[in-house]
Amino acid sequence: MKEYDIIRGPVVTEKTTLQKEINNQLTFKVDKRANRVEIKDAVEKNFNTKVKQVRTIQVKGKVKQRGKILGKRKDWKKAIVTLMPGQRIDFFEGV
């Protein structure tokens, strides 16, 4: 898997914004097959930063109902990446 295939996109919520400001942590939606080492390498190469720690979570898709029709969103994987002190990613600074 290539570095640019692993990271699917940022997760931007109120909680992740607070984590970024207080703990220097960023949250990404990542490929379900990627492990912590691959995620760390992808973030370091794509954003040119140093990563201290990576935590991953399997997120279950919600069951949604519209009238009588039941549907389910896809399961996905979330990675919480802690950057080294003094490091930052400029992509998130405007968010």
Q: What percent of the residues sit in helical stretches (DSSP H or I)?
A: 25-40%
Q: How are the strands ordered across the major sheet?
A: 1-2-6-3
User: The CATH topology is what?
Assistant: Alpha-Beta Plaits
Number of strands: 6
Which CATH architecture? 2-Layer Sandwich
Shape: globular
Structural class: alpha+beta
Order of helices and strands: HEHEHEEEE
**For the residues shown, what is the average pLDDT?**
92
What does this protein structure show overall?
Helices cover 27% and strands 37% of the residues. The protein is of the alpha+beta class and 95 residues long. It has one domain (3-85): Alpha-Beta Plaits. It is built from 3 helices and 6 strands; from the N terminus they run αβαβαββββ. The two termini are 28 Å apart.
Provide a short characterization of the protein structure.
The protein has 95 residues and is of the alpha+beta class. It is 27% helix and 37% strand.
For the structure shown, list the relevant keywords:
about 100 residues; alpha+beta; Alpha-Beta Plaits; four-stranded antiparallel beta sheet; 3 helices
Question: How is the topology of this model organized?
Answer:
Elements: H1 3-6, E1 7-10, H2 14-23, E2 25-30, H3 36-47, E3 51-59, E4 63-66, E5 69-72, E6 76-83
Antiparallel strand pairs: 1-2, 2-6, 3-6, 4-5
